[in-house]
Amino acid sequence: MASSITSSSSRLFPITRDSQPTSHSPSNFSKFASFPSSSSSSASKTSSYISCSLTRDPSVLPLEEQTNLSNGSVPFQRPDSFGRFGKFGGKYVPETLIHALTELEAAFHTLSADEEFQKELAGILRDYVGRETPLYFAERLTEHYKRENGEGPHIYLKREDLNHTGAHKINNAVAQALLAKCLGKKRIIAETGAGQHGVATATVCARFGLECIVYMGAQDMERQALNVFRMRLLGAEVRPVHSGTATLKDATSEAIRDWVTNVETTHYILGSVAGPHPYPMMVRQFHAVIGKETRKQALEKWGGKPDVLIACVGGGSNAMGLFHEFVDDKDVRLIGVEAAGFGLDSGKHAATLTKGEVGVLHGAMSYLLQDDDGQIVEPHSISAGLDYPGVGPEHSFLKDIGRAEYYSITDEEALEAFKRVSRLEGIIPALETSHALAYLEKVCPTLPNGAKVVVNFSGRGDKDVHTAIKYLKV
Amino acid sequence: MMTCKLQLGGAFAFARSNNHSVSIESSSLMVATDHQNKTNNNLLPRELAMATTCVPTIKPLLEKELRTHPQETNNDIINSGKFGRFGGKFVPETLIVCMSQLEAEFNKAIHDETFKAELAEALRDFAGRETPLYYARRLSEHYKINNNGKGPDIYLKREDLNHGGSHKINNALGQAMIAKRMGRNTVVTATASGQHGIATAAACAKLGLDCTVFMAAKEMEKECSNVKLMKLLGAKVEGVNGSYKDAASEAFRSWVGEMEKSYHLTGSAVGPHPCPTMVREFQSVIGRETRKQALEKWGGKPDVLIACVGTGSNALGLFHEYLHDMDVRLIGVEAAGCGLDSGKHSSTLAAGDVGVYHGALTYLLQDQDGQILPPHSIASGMEYPGVSPELSYLKESGRAEFSVATDQEALDAYERLCKLEGIFPSLEAAHALAILDNLVPTLSDGSKVIVNCSGCGDKDAALVFDHKLFHGKV
């Protein structure tokens, strides 16, 4: 789910012509001066000076060896030291931000190996966030998908909706806030569209006593007055942005400007596995607790592994959080479900991995929805969190190597699933999550009897009540 | 069977006891004691009027009911339905057998290992238990900072993290499972703010039971999001003129009309025996977990437990485990609304008198003629003119202390927790938090205080917003 990078919550970098330097535009060359790189996997820092240039077609780049092993399993280093997943990922950012990103990566690796940090984070996830979240056997949903002969898969829901704030987002927000605190940063910034990511960020800042500034388009502030109020109740400063169309992309520009100006004191809480390295890796690692718990719980419940994992994909953070643990288990199918909006042929969708092409957006090379001139196509989905024209680079990689499968679900199918699961299981899914649940209609008839399916129930649907009621005429 | 009959100007109400519980001497004593304890000369008319307040239509006894003998009850858990002089079964003759059957069924269930295992699994995987015991560091420091760094350590029992957003699910699940065991296919209930309605609708959806929720029409407007959630979960929501007490009466009447097929699910620890005991038993998981967690965290017991009191279910859920630990202070906090002197409050234990209401002898808010006074609180869940008979007993025996907090104090506490801990308490729970201001200075350094954060208040943000807007503070 694109918790911070969606058209209604945030974009890391502006994507209009009058914006920042061309490093993020898919149709331009980017050239980097030398910069120190940090080692991606060892705790000790090694410095080497590297100069590289990038053309539009990254296949001509001298990449590190990244071939699949002969047994079909995915190479261990994801990402490599350049922050690449195969050809995807990278750090397409203005010069001024390179140091901050490098510092962030180094801090991340240091703290990953730091027992005190891990212990503190585990305590916060347990007592504040409410982990571990249950792996719930959806009896009535399972019954619903049984074939006439009584056979069918067993459906389990990984209950990220039970987390504090009602979605998986807090796993990453809390970890990044703790990391920022360890880095001595006292100031947190974020941008938000509909307000979900803003509220999650404001929540963790209140918890940690950090100053929180959320940039929001003035127009969005009017439409989402209650979320603005919530953020203010949590002690955050919500700064209206009046430039441009006064919406998300303008808020993003402003947030970037703030970060560039205050990079010494400020940490940018990015909410999804998109953006420049190290964010895709970091956010994935912070969400990886979802998959780790799932493995343990699956073993407890049925003494084995899941057969199929299904998750919705906007930016891709909840999906990576569930998948990551199982990427090297090739007997576990990974299925990501994007938003098909009004339909793939309507042109109004957000099915990046199905209909997009490779380019650079928001600091990373990935699939994105672009026209022939390399301009971003406005996406559409009924769910704000999936309404994103890009996708995390690791998903692009997993798709290309065939490790994960990606499909899409329309608004209507998602709404039906929303209603179905609410009625059958008494749990109201977020509209984002409903996309993953809707895919059960397609996949269950094809699965053998007793196959274990785990759907990442990434968020609860209280926030979507008004939208759903309108469409469902309940 | 021994019976004493009270004639009430045309309507009959039977106070009835069976051989296993209260002897006729005691039931007369029940009434007589009130005569003796009362200083008010208008006792008799008031008490009689109380007994008529909520008498459903009396139906002729069915032959089947006359011939049914309730099973022998094991009194380990189920008491006589009396808490000192409070409690009892003030219901029409027709319902006595039903209540006895329910009591028998409940007793059987809670001694049935299969039922207990199923309930434990549902509480873990569906509701999300156990809920954390969270150290509110910043809230504790907020109080310590004005006292040379000394003060109590404040913990929050995070019932807000339950599925449905409050402690209500503990009881709704337990009772819905009992309804299913009894072969009922419909559940009826009443809800004040909607929290219990949501929990019941969720539990019913999970178990495949039909659900009808009665709610005061004015509350439906105030809490329209909750109404939508209930409908999405498949429940029917019926509006009732008046307030919660009227909705409660209507739910009861509706059940009486369909007693064979439907189950009346009480959400609060009020009503005729066995309802208060049942609700308390299902909620007592809160206190049991707390004991275990306190031991894990600091190797001891809490010094003070604080909970808000509307009807008393969350308070009893926390307190019950510690009733015999005399070194643990139990503090219940009622709603003082606009102030005790304003006449617009819901402080039953602080300002009420003893009488019979909704089938039990308990404290209630009544005028000189024994008519129920309309309660008021900014928190709908606190707006009830009665209170659990068990809490009435704990007050009279001196085992528990009761305090009050006004609407404004609750609102201030709500905002304080948002800013300091990034947690939105429900407005109900905010009452419990509000008394910390006056209580903390009286407590010793390092004493352990646990506040039951009984519900999640992000839905209350709209109400808080409107309140501040109305008072020109936004």
Brief description of this entry?
Chain A has 474 residues and is of the alpha/beta class. Helix content of chain A is 36%, strand content 17%. In chain A, the strands form 6 sheets. A 6-stranded mixed beta sheet of chain A has the order 7-8-18-13-14-17, with helices on both faces.
Beta-strand proportion of chain A: 15-25%
Counting DSSP E segments of at least 2 residues, the number of strands of chain B comes to: 16
* Biggest sheet layout of chain A: 6 strands, mixed
Strand content of chain B: 15-25%
Tell me the strand order in the biggest sheet of chain B.
Answer: 5-6-16-11-12-15
**How many strands appear in the DSSP assignment of chain A?**
18
Gap between N and C termini of chain B = 63 Å
Helix content of chain A: 25-40%
Radius of gyration of chain A: 21 Å
Tell me what you see in this structure.
The complex is a heterodimer of chains A (474) and B (474). Helix content of chain A is 36%, strand content 17%. Chain A has helices at residues 95-112, 115-129, 139-144, 169-182, 196-208, 218-223, 225-233, 248-261, 279-287, 289-302, 317-323, 352-355, 393-400, 411-425, 431-438, 440-443, 465-472; strands spanning 30-31, 35-37, 48-50, 53-54, 84-85, 88-89, 135-137, 154-159, 187-192, 211-217, 237-241, 266-268, 308-312, 333-341, 357-361, 364-368, 404-410, 452-457. In chain A, the strands form 6 sheets. Chain A has a 6-stranded mixed sheet with strand order 7-8-18-13-14-17, sandwiched between helices. Chain A has a 4-stranded parallel sheet with strand order 11-10-9-12, with helices on both faces. In chain A, strands 1-4 form a two-stranded antiparallel sheet. Chain A starts with 29 loop residues before the first strand and ends with a helix. Mean pLDDT of chain A is 84; it is low at 1-72. Helix content of chain B is 43%, strand content 18%. In chain B, the strands form 5 sheets. A 6-stranded mixed sheet of chain B has the order 5-6-16-11-12-15, with helices on both faces. In chain B, strands 9-8-7-10 form a 4-stranded parallel sheet, with helices on both faces. A two-stranded antiparallel sheet of chain B has the order 1-2. By secondary structure, chain B is an alpha/beta fold. Chain B has helices spanning 24-37, 43-52, 63-67, 93-110, 113-127, 137-144, 168-181, 195-207, 217-222, 224-232, 244-256, 275-283, 285-298, 313-319, 348-351, 389-396, 407-421, 427-434, 436-439, 461-470; strands spanning 2-8, 11-17, 82-83, 86-87, 133-135, 153-157, 186-191, 210-216, 236-240, 262-264, 304-308, 329-337, 353-357, 360-364, 400-406, 448-452. Residues 1-77 of chain B have low confidence and may be disordered. Chain B is globular, with a radius of gyration of 21 Å. The chains are: A alpha/beta (474), B alpha/beta (474). At the A-B interface, helix 2, strand 7, helix 5, helix 7 and helix 14 of A face helix 5, strand 5, helix 8, helix 10 and helix 17 of B. Chain B: Keywords: Amino-acid biosynthesis, Aromatic amino acid biosynthesis, Lyase, Pyridoxal phosphate, Tryptophan biosynthesis. Chain B: Residues 127-455 form the Tryptophan synthase beta chain-like PALP domain. Chain B: Pathway: Amino-acid biosynthesis; L-tryptophan biosynthesis; L-tryptophan from chorismate: step 5/5. Chain B: Its cofactor is pyridoxal 5'-phosphate.
